[in-house]
Amino acid sequence: MRVLGVDPGLTRCGVGVVEGSPGRPCRLVHYEVVRSDPDQDLSLRLLNLDRRLTELVAEHKPESIAVERVFSQHNVRTVMGTAQAGAVAILAAARAGLPVQLYTPSEVKAAVSGNGQADKAQVTAMVTRLLRLEVAPRPADAADALALAICHVWRGGARERISAALRRTR
Q1: Residue 79 and residue 91: Cα distance in Å, rounded?
Q2: Is 160 in the active site?
Q3: Looking at 39, 119, 141, 160, which residue is catalytic?
Q4: What is the DSSP letter of 1?
Q5: How far apart are CA 25 and CA 13, in angstroms?
Q6: From 37, 50, 68, 144, active-site residue
Q7: Which of 43, 58, 95, 122 has a CB 3.0–4.6 Å from the CB of 118, allowing a cystine?
Q8: Catalytic residue selected from 7, 32, 37, 63
Q9: How confident is the model at residue 33 (pLDDT cuts 50, 70, 90)?
Q10: Strands 64-68 and 27-35
Q11: Quick check: is 37 catalytic?
């Protein structure tokens, strides 16, 4: 299964692509951070993100997309930007006809580190180890996107198989 993970953000949106199957090590395909100028108009920033995600979906041909679920933060402006970037990722999945799954940060942390309260350094260290990389993916947004993709391969793949089996029995 090939999964594109998205750690949404307006200024820095992490994107990571991995291949794997539940219970087996994943393989790194690609990662990057899509950046936008905070002084640019919001519509242009979202358009930039949409264009790049569309290109990445076409280039890497994922079977599904995993997006970090927006959670409540104290800074409403940050939450809004993150939610808008997440919506662009969901739209990119829908446009490509791909299933999308949302994961909370604690679900992702627990999947890759065994600790739902792991900090960014622990998540980055585990992603580096799980993908057998010589150098940690930087910045943390990229490591987070890869963690989302790994989480989906390990957890979401099973969810999708169960859903497909249920659909076949109906």
Answers
A1: 18
A2: no
A3: 141
A4: -
A5: 25
A6: 68
A7: 122
A8: 7
A9: very high
A10: unpaired
A11: no
